[in-house]
Amino acid sequence: MQLTLWTYEGPPHVGAMRIATAMEDVHYVLHAPQGDTYADLLFTMIERLQKRPPVTYTTFQARDLGGDTAELFKTAAREAFERFKPKAMLVGASCTAELIQDDPGGLCKALNLPVPVVALELPSYQRKENWGASETFYQLVRKLSLPLDQIEKTQSSKPRCNILGPTALGFRHRDDLTEIRKLLTDMGVEINVVAPLTATPADLVRLADAQFNVVLYPEIANLSAQWLQRQHGQAFTKTIPIGTNATRDFVREVAQLAGLAPEIALANLESRAAWYTRSVDSTYLTGKRVFVFGDATHAVAAAKVAAQEMGFTVVGIGTYSREFAREVRDAAALYGVDALISDDYLEIEARITELNPELVLGTQMERHIAKRLGVPCAVISAPVHVQDFPARYSPQMGFEGANVLFDTWVHPLMMGLEEHLIGMFRGDSEFHENAAPSHLGGGVHQQLPQLERDIPTVEPVLVDVPSQQQAKSQSAPSNAVAGWDAGAEKELKKIPFFVRGKARRNTERYALERGVTVITTETLYESKAYFSQS
User: Fold this and answer.
1) Cβ atoms within 10 A of the Cβ of 149, count?
2) Which of 67, 150, 78 lies closest to 111 in space, CA to CA?
3) What is the DSSP string of 107-166?
4) Do 177 and 166 meet the contact criterion of CB atoms below 8 Å apart?
5) Interatomic CA distance for residues 95 and 123, integer angstroms
6) Residues 291, 312, 272, 252: is their CA dihedral positive or negative?
């Protein structure tokens, strides 16, 4: 067992909470001990929902384990139904309660409640949150959806579709849904059901009353979409509309499924980002080295946008979604890199440190890692924190989503004009990178720490090598660190701060490989010349 501080996904019953909270008239009764009751924290404090999530806990305590915990669950389920009057109920156990083996499904069946009850078997010690959300949605769809000949069919001449995948606690799902709704409507496609977000049990009953399904988040909806295809013959989309190119491909795919002409739909659709990335100052972004990590859907899409639309160089890509490892490995092959499939944040941090990218696109974990390493970062995927549920409209999908991506990713980077100004005013008492904001007044500059100017010169550490030639032949340099004299430190500060760390590391490596114990100005420029040729 590995002790961890951060986790990319919660246990599968958290995924079930996301489905229940996304829907209307559904209630989730969770067999769980006191202390496992954190649904309110997740949804009201992180997503800032205006209502409490529809989750009831049995909250048994240690003293209850010697008695009848099964009866506690039956009482909690009965009281939850009487109080909330849901149209469907989910029942299951948390990781701790799973060990008791009380069988919430069987217990609830004995209550004979007058609504559909979906019993969830979510193995907490083998599976995680996204799988739990996918399985919960799938079980609801299987339980509630009816064949087309058993429901009242809508009379319409327009093609119809369902939108599947958006949930509560999803990264920008509400804004994505708004954007894709508008895009489909403008194409002339009617929307039958959106699920699970905003859906009711009655909506799931009539899923078959659509020609095809639009899958926005495969981690959540692929399993259900595949079942609907087998049961009702509904095809589903494979393209994720993140980025300008992918959105245009998505429009073509939808048009084909709906029997529409894609040229008409695409005629007046475009994002400003497509022009902005070709504008003069944006050419400075070309070749910026970027590392991408997140759930599979967003990681693969972000890497594609970064490489094809922004002109970045993808130096690394990874995911914590092991169920979609193949898709991420296929994407990594396109960029000539090895995919990182891991949910160990320390392993991800080590990879970022090794690659030394100029931009990280990741989750809130990568944001913290990048902050410690001094690397620019933009969040592209869950897990996220409260600041990634903005009050403004901020989709990731569609043409407006492409604009949001451009703004968000460019913001933390150093643009060409900005670097030019820093170079022009290098060493200026007001405009250098360590200066306080000018609106705080000149007196503040003396009060603030001087950062690198106050760092004492590192004392030389002798490297035990018999000769310079022998040092060159060693493949693995010593752990010793060469010291810097005052002149070299002063010269190093003339290098722009956003590449200064790399210059320092390269110079120290160059010095160690040659047995140089004190780095001088000459060593610094020799190192620069050496690495510029390699």
Assistant:
1) 7
2) 78
3) HHHTTT-SS-EEE----TTT--HHHHHHHHHHHHHHHH---GGGS-----SS-EEEEE--
4) yes
5) 8
6) negative
What's 261's DSSP letter? -
> Any idea what the Cα angle at residue 121 is, between residues 118 and 125, rounded to 5°?
150
Q: Which two tokens stand for residue 309?
A: 């639309």
Name the DSSP class of 33. B
Tell me the per-residue pLDDT of 265-308, one tens digit each, with 9 for 90 and over: 777 666 777 767 767 565 677 888 999 999 999 999 999 999 99
CB atoms < 10 A from the CB of 315, how many? 21
Query: For the purposes of burial, counting CB atoms within 10 Å of the CB of 325, is it exposed (0-12), middle (13-18) or buried (19 or more)?
Result: middle
Angle at 132 between CA 131 and CA 138, to 5 degrees: 90
Q: pLDDT tens across 310-340, in order?
A: 999 999 999 999 999 999 999 999 999 999 9
Catalytic residue among 281, 330, 338, 428: 281
Q: How far apart are CA 173 and CA 183, in angstroms?
A: 15
Read off the pTM: 0.79
Which has the higher per-residue pLDDT, 389 or 442? 389
Which phi and psi (to 5°) does residue 3 adopt? -75, 130
User: What is the distance of C-alpha 60 from the center of its chain?
Assistant: 34
Report CA-CA distances (Å) from 433 to 377, 403, 419, 455: 19, 29, 11, 16
Estimate the crossing angle of helix 129-144 against helix 12-22, to 10 degrees.
Answer: 50
**Structural tokens at position 376:** 């620019």
How many Cβ atoms are within 10 Å of 69's Cβ, its own excluded? 17
Which tokens sit at 432? 């250098």
Q: Which residue, 218, 216, 213, 217, is CA-closest to 228?
A: 213
Task: Name the nearest CA neighbour of 411 among 377, 367, 372, 436.
Answer: 377
The SS3 of residue 57 is strand
Q: Are strands 289-294 and 359-362 parallel, antiparallel or unpaired?
A: parallel
Contact 218, 296 (CB under 8 A): yes
Instruction: Dig out the tokens for 431 from the structure.
Output: 């405009």
- Decide if 281 is catalytic: yes
Contacts (Cβ under 8 Å, ≥6 apart) of 340: 293, 316, 317, 318, 319, 347, 348, 351
Q: Vertex 471, ends 490 and 531: CA angle to 5°?
A: 50
Three-state secondary structure of 406-472? HHHHHCCCCCHHHHHHHHHCCCCCCCCCCCCCHHHCCCHHHHCCCHHHHCCCCCCCCCCCCCHHHHH
Residue 443 has pLDDT above 50, yes or no: no
Which string of DSSP letters, residue by residue, matches 352-381? HHHH--SEEEE-HHHHHHHHHHT--EEE-S
